[in-house]
Design brief:
By secondary structure, this protein is an alpha+beta fold. The chain has seven helices and five strands; from the N terminus they run ααααββαββαβα. A hairpin with an 8-residue loop joins β3 and β4. The chain binds zinc ion. Residues 123, 125, 128, 143, 145-146, 148 line the site of zinc ion. Zinc ion binds at residues 123, 125, 128, 143, 145-146, 148.
Length: 180
């Protein structure tokens, strides 16, 4: 076995990273390929529970898409060629960056939802906390730290900032997608 227990550089879910570009067999095979450790089609078949033929088909698709590459050696015993497969680093790095950007977009979207769906209250002092409407009611619209009255916070700037950030990241993902 040429595989190791080291963490895969591009972890699942691959669907999120590469969209619906590939069918399940190919995704299973990507999941078992590594950047630094080579695998034979036999090993990949064992790990994915696919037939060697399905694995080979998947591998050549990945080769065509420049996701994976191989090194070919002749087996001195049988005279047959053995292919040792691994992921191509550039593609993998792009996939990893893209995945990270997609996760960040998801987080910012959640934050944006939170900002849109809540009203916020603050006394105006930097060192005091910003409260949600529900919290402000609990404290009877008095700051729990300094006791000054709470005022509604205009979070339009925050919302604008988050929207801009999402657009920037989406442009980055689009750009990365074209490089794959
Ligand atoms: Zn305060």
């Amino acid at each position: 076995m040429t595989s190791s227990a080291t963490e895969h550089p591009v972890s699942v879910p691959y669907q999120t990273i590469i969209g619906d570009e590939f069918e399940n067999d190919v995704l299973k095979v990507i999941g078992q390929l590594s950047l630094d450790c080579e695998s034979t089609d036999q090993e990949l078949a064992e790990k994915t529970n696919l037939t060697v033929n399905s694995v080979r088909k998947a591998l050549y698709k990945l080769y065509d898409s420049r996701i994976a590459t191989y090194r070919r050696c002749r087996d001195t015993r049988t005279g047959h060629f053995i292919h040792y497969w691994k992921l191509l680093p550039i593609r993998s790095n792009i996939l990893a960056f893209r995945k990270k950007a997609l996760l960040t977009i998801e987080k910012i979207k959640q934050r944006l939802e939170y900002e849109r769906n809540n009203a916020f209250y603050h006394c105006g002092k930097k060192e005091c906390p910003i409260l949600t409407f529900e919290e402000a009611i609990d404290y009877r619209f008095k700051c729990p730290v300094c006791s000054q009255s709470l005022q509604a916070v205009d979070n339009e700037k925050t919302i604008k900032f988050l929207r801009k950030k999402i657009l920037e990241l989406e442009a980055e993902v689009e750009d990365l997608s074209q490089k794959i």
